[in-house]
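Cross-check.
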Amino acid sequence: MKRIALWTIAAVAVVLVTGPVSGQAYTITIPDADMGAYTATYFPQGLDSGDYFQHGADGHLTVWQYKDAVGSAGIYYPPSGVYPDGDPGSNNLIGYSWGGTIYQVLLGTPLLADTAYTLSVWAGQRAGSSNFAEGSTLELWVVGGTEPLNSVELAVPLAGTFVQTILGVPVITDASLFGRDLEIRLVCVGTGTGTKVVDFDLFELTAIYIPVPEPATMTLLALGGLAMLRRRRK
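Predicted model, tokenized:
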């Protein structure tokens, strides 16, 4: 009877520690992740003509917001040849910033305990250009936070190409931040229109649940391990 009881404890411990949702990644929806939202006013001939801009400095970004502006930012339809292999998204539209912060609050998507995040974006440098704003950063925040949960400098693309930057955000332990909506920021270090620029496209955000075992669960795991060790010795 004792042997059965010990093996029962071992089985329960394994189930509690490796529950079915642990370690499973899931995608978080980012509205207008591929920069496809635009207004007809700024693309009067539709999306077949190319080389149209929708500037953010005068409030015409539709989903993403623009602050700390030192130049202009918005949506760009690059003409043929600027990016010979196309853009990472599926609509031929990309974002751009000549300096300042592009951001979006993910309403209804709070920071969760025991959860790690991965945020990525593709940054591009136009063909024939060498004015990519090196030192620009990708950041993940919570609303009202005083510093980013984590940040990383954008990888520098070759002219005429895009390159992906991936930001890992480990499990946050500050409980005062839990429940606050997540906020994505792309900070361009350009100093004004015509200086240094970042083109960008296709943001992606995933989360993975990594629970920390409770003390009671750890006790069950220890007992389970002892049970298996005892059986092996016999």
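Residues 31 and 150 are 21 Å apart (CA to CA). The longest strand covers residues 198-209. Passed to J.P. for a second look.
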